[in-house]
Amino acid sequence: MEWFETLAIEEAHKKPRAWLRYVDDTFIIWNHRNAELDTFLKHINNVSPSITFIMEKGVNNKLPFLDVLVKRTDTKWETSVYRKSTHTGQYLNQKSNHHQSTKRRIIKTLLDLAFELCNTKKGLEKELGFIKNDLQRNGYSRLMVEQALARRQQ
Predict the structure, then answer these.
(1) Is the pTM of this model over 0.85?
(2) Of 56, 63, 113, 127, which sits 20 to 30 A from 119 (CA to CA)?
(3) Tell me: the pLDDT tens digits for 108-138?
């Protein structure tokens, strides 16, 4: 893919400001007109017959990329945790027959994701609210979640 990306971008008439890839997902920042973006997509799809890109454009200045929702404001980029519309909030129930360390790891993982992906205080607080509500619906005590949060904040 590195060879492909280098070739495709070097040969493009208009280039993206940023090109970020993780495995087969690519996030680009485009500083040109939308029509030129469509031309760029056609160009990269003509570089190699075995590689085809599809494109999802941002809506209302928001674009999901992997587990991150990227939002462009007038002055900065905001990031938060992205959940698909099919997300149910269902996790391993606290009463399930699994070791306690597995259940603590679920809480820790969700908290780590929130702290790593949310780059604003408001976004982090909103995400922590989702986590607390989801975990309580899955039988986790408020105390267990608050203790994990206190450890994470230290």
Answers:
(1) no
(2) 56
(3) 999 999 999 999 999 999 999 999 999 999 9
